[in-house]
Amino acid sequence: KNTFQPNSVTYLTILDICKELKSLPTVRKIHHLIDESKNLNNDDIQNNPRIRSLLMDVYIKCQDIDSAYKIFQSMNERNLIDYCAIMTGFNHQKQYEKTFELSKQIPPSIKYSSPVLCTLILQACIELNKYDDGYKIHQYGKKFLPNNKIFMNELLNFYLKFHQEKQALDIFDKYQNQQTIIDYSLLMKYYNRQYQPDKTIDLYYRLKNHSHLQIDHIIYVLVLQAIANGCYLHTSEQIYDQIKKSQTHMDINNALINMY
């Protein structure tokens, strides 16, 4: 203790280890040591932006979002990664209101510069029923389409949540070559909730024509639910034959029982 004084590199290394261990008591102890640290050779450990960012991230990993937010508020400068990290923590803790309120404080040059940040804000808009704000995110985020699949998935989810089927289908059809299995499942879930089994089944056959997309057990469950809702016996026999060729899953078996 008397011969060795840790510097910024030491604390960065230790925090990286803490991030993997996810030990909250250890993180708090390291945090205390950082706050009590002395400046060595102009090494301002307490205010080192990399240390503050990593310390915040470690608290988020330990699910201590309150401590993480205190670190965030103490930062003299915040970058895109810092905003994404704290908003991810808020959303994982279902504190969407905090994400939404924080989004109002972000400079536009940062706010609309990342598909990840736009996705996080859009998630909050969905949960808080903020249609106009979510629509604005779409307008500024068009430049991320269709390359960012996660943002595209969240946009579909957004419009379907607000029953804007046309807008969702416009995105879905416009980027046919970039469609994912998640896009199909989102639409099929929506149609099942709206008691439109024909549309779910049509999507299933459309999906089968996509050779680059592998049908998973979720899709099978959704189409079986649609068949059960619509009482399509002939269609059920066709799809049952197709399911037998795939590896069955417990959810599929349950859906088959419900269908019959």
UniProtKB/TrEMBL annotation:
Gene3D superfamilies: Tetratricopeptide repeat domain (1.25.40.10)
Top-level taxonomic group: Eukaryota
InterPro entries: PPR_At4g14850-like_plant, TPR-like_helical_dom_sf
GO BP: any one term: RNA modification
GO molecular function: RNA binding
Protein's recorded name: Uncharacterized protein
Organism: Adineta steineri
